[in-house]
């Protein structure tokens, strides 16, 4: 561990690391801060390489490993939340094997809660292509195949449009992808539940709602991830019981873009975003 880590707080006072390819993980960070108001967080946005959903598994795994090492060595984190569906699918097992004593919490499309809530048995899942083509997702869907009909829609470009706050492209892509998901509503054969399988998507629920109508339930992973993080820290005796908490924002490029996204989407005060680098940075 580096001097930066050993000089910081010890035990329960250490921060929780959270990372995503860009700003999508802010939706998970919101849920974490609501569930764990006394905790300190370090959020890393890998903006230089966003979005991960249009990269290959090997690239995503290398970046995930490098960022995890940076957060452990330089910030002394006590837990790591991989607030990215694509990185979870590509690298969560390797991360846990490399950091045996560190609680590592990933995210995945919330198919199980969707099955429990759906009345028509028709569920649409929107996510990046890498997430939907992963073995992890395929196994999850296969385990639930007898319980619901899943309408799977890979949403190429949507996370990038959200990352760039491109409202025109967001609207165009939402029309395209939700049109491909089938008929929405609460009638037999209609899709009545929409799984938001990318952490970017909770930020465009108003646009999504234009195409689904009000009867459709939206499900994301923020609250379950926050609850699991609490359980793991509590079991390890690492929960912070007092203090105001806080967030340090880091970005691999364009910290001003992370500042703007934070002001737009994140609840509560944060430290200004600063630029950080990690080792083993692939360029393609």
Automatic annotation (TrEMBL):
Active site per database record: 84, 198
Enzyme Commission designation: 5.1.1.3
UniProt superkingdom: Bacteria
Keywords (A to Z) from UniProt: Cell shape, Cell wall biogenesis/degradation, Isomerase, Peptidoglycan synthesis
Binding-site positions, substrate: 20-21, 52-53, 85-86, 199-200
Molecular function GO labels: glutamate racemase activity
Signal peptide range in chain numbering: none
Enzyme class name: isomerase
Pathway membership: Cell wall biogenesis; peptidoglycan biosynthesis
Catalytic activity: L-glutamate = D-glutamate
Gene3D superfamilies cross-referenced by the UniProt entry: 3.40.50.1860
Pfam families from the UniProt entry: Asp_Glu_race
PANTHER family: GLUTAMATE RACEMASE (PTHR21198)
Function: Provides the (R)-glutamate required for cell wall biosynthesis.
Homology family: Belongs to the aspartate/glutamate racemases family.
HAMAP family, A to Z: Glu_racemase
Name of the protein in question: Glutamate racemase
Native organism: Variovorax ureilyticus
